Structures are given as structure tokens and as C-alpha cells.
Amino acid sequence: MPYKAPVEEFRFLLNHVVGYGQVTETERFAEAGGEMMDAILTEAGRLASEVLGPLQRNGDLHPAVLENGVVRTSPGFAEGYKAIAEGGWIGISADPEHGGMGLPITLMESVNEMINGACLSLALNPLLTQGQIEALEHHASDELKALYLPKLISGEWQGTMNLTEPQAGTDVGALRTKAEPDGDGTYRISGQKIYISWGDADFAENVCHLVLARLPDGVPGTKGISLFMVPRNIPDENGKPGERNSLRVVSLEHKMGLHGSPTAVMEYTEAKGWLVGREHGGMAAMFTMMNNARLGVGIQGIGVAEAATQAAVAYAAERKQGKVGGAGTIIEFPDVRRMLMTMRAETQAARAIALANAVALDMANATGDAGWAARAALLTPISKAYGTDVGCEVAATGIQVHGGMGFIEETGAAQFYRDVRVTTIYEGTNGIQALDLVGRKLMDGGEAAFTLISEVEEAAEAARAQFPRLADAVWNAAEVQRDLTEAVLEMDMDARGAVAVAYLRAFARVLGAHYHLASAVAEGGNGPRTGLARFYVMRLLPQHTGLAAEVRMGSEGMDALSNEELAG
Amino acid sequence: MPYKAPVEEFRFLLNHVVGYGQVTETERFAEAGGEMMDAILTEAGRLASEVLGPLQRNGDLHPAVLENGVVRTSPGFAEGYKAIAEGGWIGISADPEHGGMGLPITLMESVNEMINGACLSLALNPLLTQGQIEALEHHASDELKALYLPKLISGEWQGTMNLTEPQAGTDVGALRTKAEPDGDGTYRISGQKIYISWGDADFAENVCHLVLARLPDGVPGTKGISLFMVPRNIPDENGKPGERNSLRVVSLEHKMGLHGSPTAVMEYTEAKGWLVGREHGGMAAMFTMMNNARLGVGIQGIGVAEAATQAAVAYAAERKQGKVGGAGTIIEFPDVRRMLMTMRAETQAARAIALANAVALDMANATGDAGWAARAALLTPISKAYGTDVGCEVAATGIQVHGGMGFIEETGAAQFYRDVRVTTIYEGTNGIQALDLVGRKLMDGGEAAFTLISEVEEAAEAARAQFPRLADAVWNAAEVQRDLTEAVLEMDMDARGAVAVAYLRAFARVLGAHYHLASAVAEGGNGPRTGLARFYVMRLLPQHTGLAAEVRMGSEGMDALSNEELAG
């Protein structure tokens, strides 16, 4: 089943649902609407459908392997990467000063979703480079920017992020990698990093590693961490990749999925590095990058959800089964239709939330308005966790639609399920996202949350005449979410930790319903979007009640079992 | 993390929660309680923990392969199988007349859960033989019984089930495999069958295929199907496996998981077969076998859930992460504890439901009482679907607890997730189970359902003095389930199809809460079971509300999107 980029869906959401019009009304992004937007979506859609989609199975069937220290990539990936780079897609939102297109993040994320949906394992490569571009734009010296940004933006060079070490996952502050000043303004980096996506590639002219390490005078914990640029090949005086740096890929992980994306253990042995940002300021730089990367990972989940939905619908529309002599296909069976409707409704809800998140980022960037920045910050953990939860659940349902064939690898349904599973884990597990939401993101006393909830209620009010049942349901759920927010604000951190995931999921349900209702309003009623809105609001939104009950429990009963009793 | 069979848990549930005492009060099973029960559970637990658990990774790392027409099995599987067979576990519930132990199905399922949890891919082999034994006991001629049952019960020979064909999955009636009478009382079977688990094994002295096929005068559809015994090696006059029959393994499927279990495409070319049961009576024979197989598959899900829970708890108790200088492990983190508590609570709920189902089967078998038979029939689709849903969800949560390590195959967390995924599909997808529940199983006007709901309410009444909040919550949910049952009874089949899965899941939540409450009552309050009951009833049971809302929608809005619109 070939992937078909959902170009029309993006056009509709951007034009009518998620407020993209506000972005193109700013001076900075005045050119990014209308024909420009159409051209970007159409062209990226073509790339995804025609060039990248056909590579999806290659990555799984012919995983990247480490041979004599070099990562040999899957068949066709070099050409696919080249097509992404030559289309200018890596630098779509990068600063035009260094060759970027300077377009809104909303368009970048739309494009990225299509690339992710077509071939996630390859798409991860430019995504990491995009994160690196952003970090360098915000934190690097002008010299480093001038040297690295044009190469990264053109895709000639590739970027990675090196945070994790065996003993330091979520707890980044425990890292042991060392950096020592070399006297000439550079540093010697030594240590081992794990889970380095696309740590190397045989089609990379250069690989630029951003590495977190601790200087000799760095205090323990996150406040003593600095960020370094450590290129695989050290650029010579002409800016060409020169001498090999003292770093290597030790091994590649045997993962459950994403086999086309090499996940490396990297070793640095007094490798030459350049400081990015100020000394001991590494976490701030990483956070810049991580916030957008989190939205980006949410978008990965949504991309896979779209692809898995398309594949399941296509299978169900072809698979004959039924009464003797009947020529029915399983798409006519109510339970199969329920599964497909759920997949479609969840995918579109998650997409709308993520795009609204991107719009908030663009508005914050274009206007400097703190309210937009707070909105973006609030939505980021929701976009990441809900987008990737939806990715996993939709892929699981996709297998179910395929029946026995879903368990057989040839259909590709299993690959979606395996590939997407990591998205709820990396860039901060979904549990960490939820803790971020009930912790940092409510440190404003809930202001950003209450503002958003009020907007949801106002929109529901406005829709009431046209869609009384749906509007009531959305308004009521939003009001419950307001109560839950107040309840969470009064909890201690242990209780917040116990209810964080339920609170996040409840919030996502309210927002999903809100954007479905907005789509129905924009459609004018009675079309497919209205039908889907009704399905989501009347059949899926009621799950909010169960989540709300869980939130209200706080930490009650969480310690009822000792560790030994939990073990069984 | 080595698997540890939950022997104590079985003992507690059988002695205090699921009514096993009624079984041992019958004449037929008078010997199956007390010391006998303890010995069975202890001995099977030892086999699972010490012999089979260590084979789990072998099946994944060294899958079964087809070489020159022979299925080479994973290292150690031959010895593991021998240990299962020599322990007498295959014939634990088989008729003593042919060498079985004649013990209750409740004990068989308890033993099977431990074997499944230890190594699912190997466990599938004796499970299929058990299904075949049951089918032969009920439907075969005395001659066939005398020849095959002793060999199957001893494990010298193995059994398979051959239903599915490429065009005939759920719709078994569409099968094309032919049987022609040979004049000498035997038949010539020709056709291709797919998804044949353990279609062959290099350690099998003989493989006995039960094959559904159509006789020349068989009408189209299920009513023209007959069942045949088609052995790989035709027994000679001494009952030894003789001449090769005309059948072969064409290929093995490339599956997402269960790699240790060879899933064969089988081809029969005028293979010699013997009729089992009457001509055109194949479906009735298959149904006998399938009902218990469905419970057995639910038990597979629960076995994997137990194993995944143990592995996650062990990992969380060892994995250090936390504040600088802290030596905390992640099991102390509220969100991790929430995940582990959920895994434990769901696993035990599903186990109690499945064992109550087995008790009902034993009571029906021992007493011939129609009420027990109806109870068993009602619970079967719930045990199967909830047990396997829990298997998948718990395995997914297990990955999440492991964080990045969960996506790396070495931990084994990913294997649970991949292996268990097929259980929601085979032996009738969980959608089919739900349709069975809202269709056939409510054809009594809901009598069996209402009777069970009333028992749940009575138990809640009785528990109210001791556990007022929990009892209220259970009673209320049961009352809603009664309303839902009445609502479903008034729906047409399209609407029932649309709400079937939600109705089944809602029912499972009520029953899970019921058995947790019963465990708390049996414990006397304030112990770990009471804590777990509180967790389940107060934090998970509220999901019932969302499911109930979905059921009440009937088929409303299901056809809002055309097939093209669903495709995106």
C-alpha cells in the first residue's frame, strides 16, 4: 500500500482550523501563506509519496550495519536523503542568512509529518540536523555558525545529538563525558554516548556531533554541563571535511524497529570539540533544541498513524470476507469500520493539536509575545505524548484490521507497530512529558492552561447553535479539565507524578474534541469532517470521565504494595 | 530477568476467589483439591521457572527454520518439550482411560498460564495438542481414539489444527480444501492451509493434523465441512508412525514475533485422512475445540502479562536514576509505580476472570448443569479478549518502564510485546469475540449475563460494610452494565457490531473489579490484595463510564465517512 501524503488535510487545517492565518499576518511570515504554502505542501507531498514511501520496507528488510567502522545504510536511503536535501527541506525554517528558507515551523512540521509518514527511519536523519541547526542558530558563535550552518542547511553535512550515557538517561545530569580545554580555544572530549540516532552514515560527507560533556570545573549535575560541536571530520581552512577526529561508532543497537536508522554507541577519545554557547550552559542550549524536537517526535507518531490508517483502509477495502456467496469486503463490517474511524479520528485530532502547537511557536518567534510562548510550551508535552500514543495505538489497531496478515511482516502493518514504538520513549518518555506538563508548565499558576481552556469553552459556546450536542460535550469536558487543573495545582509533587499521565491524556482529549468541532464548524456541517467530529466527541471524548476520576485520586493507594509484592 | 511462576497467586485465587471449591466438591473432581492441587501447581511452577523460562530468548534469537522440508526448531526446545510431555502436563485434563490425569480444566489452565509465561512460542505446541485431544475425545470413533489419544496424551505425537486458507479466515465456510472418499473408509485430502502453528517439528515422532475439508456432496458454507485426521506418518499395524503421508510444509511465515513457533503453510495432495465425527459435521467438532482454545489463548495473554510485569518490576527496582547524589531507583518514581501497579492489577483481574471461566467449564462438565455451561460460554469471549488485550497493554507498558532499553531487543521486553501481539488475532480476533458476546451469547435474552451481573451486585452488597467505597463503585458499574445489556438486546446487528468491543471491555472492567473486591474480602482487608483492589476499582474501573457512553451510541455516526473519505 503506497503512502499518499495528506496534502489536502494540511491545507484545510492550516487555512481553517489551527490559526495559521495569524502567522501569515505577521511581518516575518507575510510570504508564507497562499500560493507559497500550497507549493510547499504539494511539492513535499510529492517527495514523500513518490520518492520516500517506496523506501520504507528497505530500511526494515536491509537494516543499517556497521562494517569496518563504517555504517552501511539501507538500499536507496542515500538517494532518498539526497532528494530531501536538494529539495531544501532540511533548512525550510532555517535562517535565510545561511541558506535556509526562513519559513514558519508550522510548514516545517507539516512537511516533516509527510516525510515521517513515508519513511520514518530515514526521516529521523534530517530531523536531527534540523534540531542541530536550531541549537547553533541560538547558541553558537558567529564563526561556528558561518562554518557549519550552510553545510547543515544544504544537507551536505549531517547533525546528531549526544546526550545519553549508560548511567544517564532521563537524569542527564549524571553524565560523565569529560571536556578539557586545549589552550587553543578548542577542547578535548572523552566519553561514551549511547542511543545516538544516525551516529554515522556512508552517505554523509561529514557528521557533526553536538555532545554534552563536563568541563573540569563543572559542578555535578546539570549545571556543570557544557555543549560542544565535535565533527567526525575536522573542517580544514577551506571549510572542507579534513582529518578524522578521534571518535568512532563502537556498535549499533539491535532494536525492535526503525532498523533503517542506525542507533550508535559512540566513543570519543580526546576528540577535538568547539564550545557551543557559554561554559556550563549546555543544558540551556539542549533545551532549546529539545523543545522543538519533542514536537517533532509527536509529529513522527502522527506521520506513522496516517500511514498505518491508509494501509488499514486499503486492506479493509480489498479483503473479501463474509457470508457465503457474498462479495463483501471487511470495510463494511461495523467493528472494522469502528476501528478505521477511530484511527482516522485520533490521527486528525493529534495532527491539529501539533499544528496548533507549531502556530504558537511561530507566533512567539514572530511577535515575541510571552502568551504565545507560554501556549507553545504548554502544548509541547501534549503534542509529543498524545501524538506518539496515537501513533502506537493506531498502528496496533492497524494490525488488528489486517487480522492474521497483520502479524506477518510482508504487509508492513507490523513494521509501523515496531517502528513507532520508540517515539513514546525518546526525547523524554511520555511519562516525562506528563511530569513536565504538571510541573514546569503549571508553574505559572495554571495561567496558560486556563487561558487555553477558556478559548475551548468560548469556541464551544460559539458552535452551540449549530452543533448543540457536540458543543455541550466539549464545553463540559473543558470545564472538568479546568477543575482538574485546579486540583493538580493543589497536589504535592508525588501526587502530581501519580496523576500526570492521566491529566495529560485528559487534556489531549479535550483539545482533540475542540479541533474536531472547529473542523466541523469550518466545514459548515454535514460533511465528512462533521461526521468525524461527531464520532470523536460522542464516542471517544467520554473517555475523559475515566481519566478525570484517575486524576482526582491523587496519590491515594499508590504505595499499597511493597516492591516485593509488586514483583508477584 | 528469570520468570518466576506465580504459584502462590494461583493457590489464593483457587482457594478463595474463583469458586474452585465447588469443583472439588463434585464427585468427578473430588481428588483435585488440597494436596493434589498444591502438588500440581508447585511442580508445574518449577518446570516453568527452571526449565522453560530459560528457553524464552532462544526462540526469538534462533527461530524455527524450514530446511529441506524439515522444520528445525530452536535450541533447547526439544528438551523443553520433552520435559512438558514427561511431566504429564499435556494430558492433565484428558480422560484417564487413554492415559490422561483427568484433572479439572481449572488446573490445566493454571499450569498452562505458567508454561505460557515462561516460553510462549514453545507452549503453543502442547496447547494445540490439548485442543486436538479434546476434539477427538468428543467426536472421534473408538478406533481413532484408541490409536491416537494415548500417543497425543503422552506427547509422543503432536497435534495441529488446520482451519484457515488464504481466502477463508474468519469466514471458515469459504474453504476450498477437498476430501474424496477412497472406498476403504479413508479419504483423500487435497488443498492448502495457512497459519498452521507448529505444522511440523524435528522433535515430533509424528504430527497429527486435524483438517477441515469439504466432501464432494458437501454444500457450500460451513454446513458442508467435515473434519479429518491426517497424520504426517501413517500409523502401521502396530501403531508406529509408518509411511509418509502426502503432505508437506511449503514455507514458514515471517512473523513479527513468536519466532520459536513455526507457522506453516501446509499442502495436502491426496493425503490419506480419517473422518472425525460425522460427515458435514466438521464445524461442530471444531467449535468444541475452539471454545476451550479461546480460553487458552486468553491465558496466553495473561501468562505474558505476568512475565512482562515481573521483568518490569525487576528492572525498575535495579535501574538507578534520580537527583544528583541520590541512589534512588526508578521504582520509587510515582509514574513508574503507577505503571507497575496498573500492570499488576490488570494481570490479576484477567487471571481471575479466566479462572472463573475454567471453573464454570469444570462445573458444567462435572454436573451437566446448563447454567454453568451458559456461564462458561458467556465468559469465554471475555476471557479471550480481555486476557489478550491485557497481554498487549501490559507488554507495551513494560517497554515504557524500561525506557530506551525497552526498544533494544536484549532486554526481552520487546519480545513480550512482539510475541503477544498475535493473541488478540488468532482463535478469532478480539472483534469476533465481542461479536460472539453480543450475538450468540445474548441469544438467551441476556439471562446468563443478568445472572452474572446479579452475582456481582450481591457480592458488592455483602462487601459494603467492610469496603463501602469499593463496593459502591462495583455495584454501580454492575448496574450500568445491566442497562447496557438491555440496550444491546434492543439493537440490530449493525449497531451491536459497532458497540461490541466497547460492551465486552466494559463487562471485563466490571468483572475485574468484582474479583479484585473478592480478593480484598478474602484477605480480610489492609493487605496488598486490598491495596490492589483499591487501585483497580478507584483508578481503572472509572474507564467503564467512557465505554458505556460508546455502547449507548449504537451505530450512530458510524457511516459518516465514505470509504474514500476514510482513506484520507
UniProtKB/TrEMBL annotation, chains A, B:
<dbReference type="InterPro" id="IPR036250">
    <property type="entry name" value="AcylCo_DH-like_C"/>
</dbReference>
<dbReference type="InterPro" id="IPR006091">
    <property type="entry name" value="Acyl-CoA_Oxase/DH_mid-dom"/>
</dbReference>
<dbReference type="Pfam" id="PF02770">
    <property type="entry name" value="Acyl-CoA_dh_M"/>
</dbReference>
<dbReference type="Pfam" id="PF00441">
    <property type="entry name" value="Acyl-CoA_dh_1"/>
</dbReference>
<dbReference type="InterPro" id="IPR046373">
    <property type="entry name" value="Acyl-CoA_Oxase/DH_mid-dom_sf"/>
</dbReference>
<dbReference type="InterPro" id="IPR037069">
    <property type="entry name" value="AcylCoA_DH/ox_N_sf"/>
</dbReference>
<dbReference type="Pfam" id="PF12806">
    <property type="entry name" value="Acyl-CoA_dh_C"/>
</dbReference>
<feature type="domain" description="Acyl-CoA dehydrogenase/oxidase N-terminal">
    <location>
        <begin position="79"/>
        <end position="156"/>
    </location>
</feature>
<keyword id="KW-0285">Flavoprotein</keyword>
<protein>
    <recommendedName>
        <fullName>3-methylmercaptopropionyl-CoA dehydrogenase</fullName>
        <ecNumber>1.3.99.41</ecNumber>
    </recommendedName>
</protein>
<dbReference type="GO" id="GO:0016627">
    <property type="term" value="F:oxidoreductase activity, acting on the CH-CH group of donors"/>
</dbReference>
<dbReference type="InterPro" id="IPR013786">
    <property type="entry name" value="AcylCoA_DH/ox_N"/>
</dbReference>
<feature type="domain" description="Acetyl-CoA dehydrogenase-like C-terminal">
    <location>
        <begin position="453"/>
        <end position="558"/>
    </location>
</feature>
<dbReference type="InterPro" id="IPR009075">
    <property type="entry name" value="AcylCo_DH/oxidase_C"/>
</dbReference>
<dbReference type="InterPro" id="IPR009100">
    <property type="entry name" value="AcylCoA_DH/oxidase_NM_dom_sf"/>
</dbReference>
<dbReference type="InterPro" id="IPR025878">
    <property type="entry name" value="Acyl-CoA_dh-like_C_dom"/>
</dbReference>
<feature type="domain" description="Acyl-CoA oxidase/dehydrogenase middle">
    <location>
        <begin position="161"/>
        <end position="268"/>
    </location>
</feature>
<feature type="domain" description="Acyl-CoA dehydrogenase/oxidase C-terminal">
    <location>
        <begin position="281"/>
        <end position="437"/>
    </location>
</feature>
<dbReference type="Pfam" id="PF02771">
    <property type="entry name" value="Acyl-CoA_dh_N"/>
</dbReference>
<comment type="function">
    <text>Involved in the assimilation of dimethylsulphoniopropionate (DMSP), an important compound in the fixation of carbon in marine phytoplankton, by mediating the conversion of 3-(methylthio)propanoyl-CoA (MMPA-CoA) to 3-(methylthio)acryloyl-CoA (MTA-CoA).</text>
</comment>
<dbReference type="GO" id="GO:0050660">
    <property type="term" value="F:flavin adenine dinucleotide binding"/>
</dbReference>
<dbReference type="InterPro" id="IPR052166">
    <property type="entry name" value="Diverse_Acyl-CoA_DH"/>
</dbReference>
<comment type="similarity">
    <text>Belongs to the acyl-CoA dehydrogenase family.</text>
</comment>
<keyword id="KW-0560">Oxidoreductase</keyword>
<keyword id="KW-0274">FAD</keyword>
